[in-house]
Amino acid sequence: MNKALGDTFLGLDLSTQQLKATLTDKDSNVILEKSVAFDEDLPEFKTKGGVCVGKNGRVTVPVRMWVKALDLLLQKLKNSEIEFSKIRAISGAAQQHGTIYWSNGSLNFGETLSSEKSLYEQLQKSFALEDSPIWQDMSTTQQCEALEKHIGGPQELANISGSKAYERFSGNQIAKIYQDYPDVYKNTERISLVSSFLASLFLGSYAPIDVSDGSGMNLLNIWQKTWEHQLLDACAPDLENKLGGVVENGSRLGCIHSYFVQRYGFRKDSLVINFTGDNPATVLSMNLSEGDAVVSLGTSDTVLMHLSNPSPSTFASILCHPSNSNSHMGLICYNNGSLTRQFIRDEYANKSWDEFNNLVEQILPGCQDRIGFYGSNNSDSIRIEQGSVVPEFSDPTLNTRAVLESRFLSMYMKCMQLGLRTKRVFAVGGAASNDSILQVLADIFGVPIYKFAFGNSASLGASYLARLGFLKALDPGKQFHDLGIKDTSQLSKQPNLDNHQTYSGLLEKFSEASKKWDRIELS
Ligand code: XUL
């Protein structure tokens, strides 16, 4: 471990598969990174890819697994001899949209915490619902339809909340809990997002919801940054009370609970700053300027961008910006990403990335007029060959390149529709380490692709948010740019402009073919 000379700032990220920590110093240098992987480190919860898949599109996570993961992560940090006493502020990021239902009477759960015991041992009875629905949950179509109908349609809902109704968005998830388990809802005192839940653990009482993460709920007015009553009322009764307040932009929530001071040696005045969503935190880690797009290739594929003057649409989400009160950010989220690419690799390239890459490089751009749209397994995929829908390409190895092209063409087209003239693309996430994949991305966007040396962008962004909150507590006028974060991105791929022209020629046909598919992959 690098020893920090002065103050440090801790950023966490409770993502789908792991809980990660990134410690940075006042010059934004990364001092330490640690993580807990749910499937491997906590096998007793029997998650796969960090989640439990139920019936009818239900996807949940045992909330106490997350609590245990925090115990384990802090223990790992302690074992690595991290100097807890230098940490001046803590913030976090988390997978968006997931909801946690705290049971009646849990408000001051911190009052009875003993530093002799783990949080896991002591928070057994704190949750009205054992299994939290998360962003992969697709079981709320009925609730989405009802919400859109109530407000006058998808575009009207997007105009207020930044997004049409999405199955994973928290308002629709809460409505389902209220309808299917009225007793659970009645027993719930506070509903947290995953980010505010994690912040609550550090505070020993409920943390407010961050407006940027809260923009992923279909409940918040993204222009006024307040709960929208007509949306709250359409989802469930007494919802405003159960959600509590909202905060933004590096707000100080309080000092860390004494449990952590006694058990791990944090300083008493270590600040807990508002925790945000993983996508907003990623935007912070990269300090985006106009014309920059981040393509994140992970469990879900997302495109993120800074937008100063956004117009809501029904294919992208507009969120409040996590550090700039006057701006917004755009998010396009594809609900399947790395699992689909792995599935294609396993089916058509002998489970080998090398073989997959060789095939991608040999196949000509455009796949000789083939387009494939893929779900996370073969059963919800379609292929179009010479204009007709076919069960399989005549040369099945074409699937390797086709799975990349259809995703990146869709991203490129949607960025243009949002009015973004992309100048640079920053590639992050697991697949960003694959050069063949990045070359296809560069050719389709027709712009250079940059990468960052750091891997955990969300926890890094959270550590910057912690530092922003620390500075603002001293001087409320401080802004994110005062952190002086340097652009450390490195050029990774230049586009081949001939290939880009080939792709530009395919756009119209692709756009027509992809219309029906949007509902499946952008839900
Ligand atoms: C965004 C989304 C995912 C999650 C998980 O809308 O659902 O990106 O935040 O990372």
TrEMBL record:
It catalyses: D-xylulose + ATP = D-xylulose 5-phosphate + ADP + H(+). Coiled coil: none annotated. Residues 134-284 form the Carbohydrate kinase FGGY N-terminal domain. It comes from the Eukaryota. Keywords: ATP-binding, Carbohydrate metabolism, Kinase, Nucleotide-binding, Transferase, Xylose metabolism. InterPro entries: ATPase_NBD (IPR043129), Carb_kinase_FGGY (IPR000577), D-XK_euk (IPR042024), FGGY_C (IPR018485), FGGY_N (IPR018484). Pfam families: FGGY_C, FGGY_N. Residues 293-466 form the Carbohydrate kinase FGGY C-terminal domain. The keyword Nucleotide-binding applies. Its EC number is 2.7.1.17. PANTHER family: SUGAR KINASE, XYLULOSE KINASE. Belongs to the FGGY kinase family. Highly specific D-xylulose kinase which participates in the catabolism of xylose. Xylose is a major component of hemicelluloses such as xylan. Most fungi utilize D-xylose via three enzymatic reactions, xylose reductase (XR), xylitol dehydrogenase (XDH), and xylulokinase, to form xylulose 5-phosphate, which enters pentose phosphate pathway. This is Xylulose kinase. It comes from Basidiobolus ranarum.
